[in-house]
């Protein structure tokens, strides 16, 4: 393991200018070699596995980013709020899609450590990516190829991928966030900005080496989550009843008025190189009379162009069924 | 230093009573000495480096950068490591695993090519990343179905058997069913990472190593180094789980001894989790074929069960996939055959219920298919074919057998007769409900075991044996047997185990230790009482008076497996019946176990609490075997060929609490006639039959027959 510098950014007094404190200023000056860390539940694994060797870690867990503010229709969540704390917040307890995306993820121990800002930036679980002895990995070594495409790929993605990389984005929370039209607030070297979660990640078929659209030194400070005037739910399908990433999942936010889908937003998990916003399915559904046949049509449309390898051949079908089931359960349509 | 225990106070008789573990307080307070806890604290740290190819020759291990790294003391590789003899593991009927660094050949992905020894683990890990290993790569053969693989057909597992004339039996059948079954490779994955620390004193070797068999490990080390057996001592009073992976003297143990020899200081090696997938054995995958012939009334006329399993290129692993088939049912015409295929994979080894775990799935699934075909209740089908005598051992009567009681009681507990037997007939909302069952006839395994009993001047006693307690309760049951037969309180008996310098023991494996050590203990107690001129269970005061002014009186005794022919009976292993109730999501294919009933005949139950715990633990392993666990090796041609793709506990799925319902366990039957204590082992029977019972329940729920483990949602879409 390479030696690294650890800086605890705990300068609460100058929190207003947090990215200008000494530690982060250094981080910005040498961007390739510096990273923020909070819960560390992904990053320390990557370091121990020899996949990632930053020179400096800037620990942001003591910065004042652990508050949750609620207005009428917006939840503003500090990036350092843990998954466990967000799940038990009064505004989240009744927001099924968000609560279940948190509580069905990881284990209680991990949820107590992991922060929501880190969660949406977690790196893929692909075991070819996570084993440095594997030489072909376009995400780790751009241009080297993809061992997973030819290898064992049961847990890999089928949307937003091609033969260059089939790594899945494994966050449950981010799948719920795309269905909730959530945004991230960031603070970077050029000031602050707000990015839709649907625009935060980079598809593997666009650039496997790049996970997200943040620039060097840019820090997620908050999640902005609109509180929907709709019903919602998160269904996670996995071999094991707990403590496993999704084979497939569906986050559905929908409001039916007089039998018609007045609002519908869908995120799919376990299938995409990014948290997958199912816009094709939404187009089929929006403004239409809700029915099981329509749900089938929508799900089929979303998965129509799936890229599969032998190990993932089952995934489009399982994803279709997962989405249909969750649309049915959220809308309570029976026929 | 050795481990000692202090027991709670209870009144005799204690055999069969569910007394709490004598080492329970030590365990829950973190005070039990695991092997590594006893090792020298100032030992250097060795980190093993595995090959990144599956077959070939190492052309060079360039350690110059690694040796220059901070804290590094030495690098071992085949260039300069000490040469040792490969032990012939005679007591285990196989060659011991190859000691590492003896030649340039790479036999599998992860095969050790070097070890870095440094002051700290972090320094060793870093230096290991600086090693430059060059290979002449050869094309590996890693697929069980690869026609290029060397196939061993001459009964390599000692499993083959022919009775009668199979084709005659098939011809006599009204119904014949025939199918292939596949079980995936599994990895034992005890939570405790295996460790070994070696310290040399001149030519004497002292090791603290994770092992289920300290005595044999010491034998093998003495043979490897050509030193007197009495100059080798291996201690392992406790380990963090074994499940069979600690049975053999694996290469990492040799590596620690070599490194300590080279650097002249104690060296500790702790495997990483990925190394636990390639360095300490695994349950081999199987491809099996079963053909059953039966008359309309359900009488079996022919049973054919063949299996192909992998074995490493230069290793032995006589795994008997068909043991349960050979002795399970009364059938005149039988052919059982196991072939092995040599692959460039890490050496497979025993994993809880080796052979029977996989073979039972095929046989008991096939019987379920036959029951459906015949329209006979699956429980009834098994009863009609009960082997009243052992067809695999000259039709000798069993020393004990209560399988019919297991079947009846299990059916009663799960409400078997209340189900609708038609497939896909029971449903609650999206959930299809199914019931399934399987029977188990577990093999008998015994080796000699020697125990020393010491009665001290104060009338208290100690029991000494090299055997290991792998967490199953050996300390506790030995305490119980000795206490009851000496008339002592549990707290007046000290049990010392896990040290190769103590009297010879068999492995903690094969469901054989409880029988061996409890009988040896009983014999040694008889011996010491005879020496003291006592009988019965005299109690502390009488014992103290008999010892008189001597410091102590000791006696040793050896329990030896009897000759069945001489006895006129066939030694029985445990029997059992498993009944499962599952829910299967009709659309999503998710299988969740709702109930699992185990009814077990294990002879005399020595301790109801620890025996139940063994069945519960085995059943949890069975759920993993059925639905989750699968070690996946990269088969495609390329640089990753032969690499385990999920060597990580996040990706290799074991059952977690949410997968395990309340498990119902009952014991039936009585003491076995074979031995004085009447005990049969219960360590593995709990796992067997679970996969078939769940698979059969999945069929009942869905109408879909899955002949492959693990049964995952994608197979049910």
Automatic annotation (TrEMBL), chain A:
It holds the Pfam family FAD_binding_5. Keywords: Oxidoreductase. GO terms for molecular function: FAD binding; oxidoreductase activity. SUPFAM superfamilies: CO dehydrogenase flavoprotein C-terminal domain-like, FAD-binding/transporter-associated domain-like. Residues 1-230 form the FAD-binding PCMH-type domain. The keyword Calcium does not apply. This is Xanthine dehydrogenase YagS FAD-binding subunit. It comes from Nocardioides alpinus.
Automatic annotation (TrEMBL), chain B:
SMART domains: Ald_Xan_dh_C. InterPro entries: Ald_Oxase/Xan_DH_a/b (IPR000674), Ald_Oxase/Xan_DH_a/b_sf (IPR036856), Ald_Oxase/xanthine_DH-like (IPR016208), AldOxase/xan_DH_MoCoBD1 (IPR008274), AldOxase/xan_DH_MoCoBD2 (IPR046867), AldOxase/xan_DH_Mopterin-bd_sf (IPR037165). Residues 29-139 form the Aldehyde oxidase/xanthine dehydrogenase a/b hammerhead domain. It comes from the Bacteria. Keywords: Molybdenum, Oxidoreductase. One of its GO terms (molecular function) is iron ion binding. Pfam families: Ald_Xan_dh_C (PF01315), MoCoBD_1 (PF02738), MoCoBD_2 (PF20256). This is Xanthine dehydrogenase YagR molybdenum-binding subunit. The lineage of its organism: Bacteria, Bacillati, Actinomycetota, Actinomycetes, Propionibacteriales.
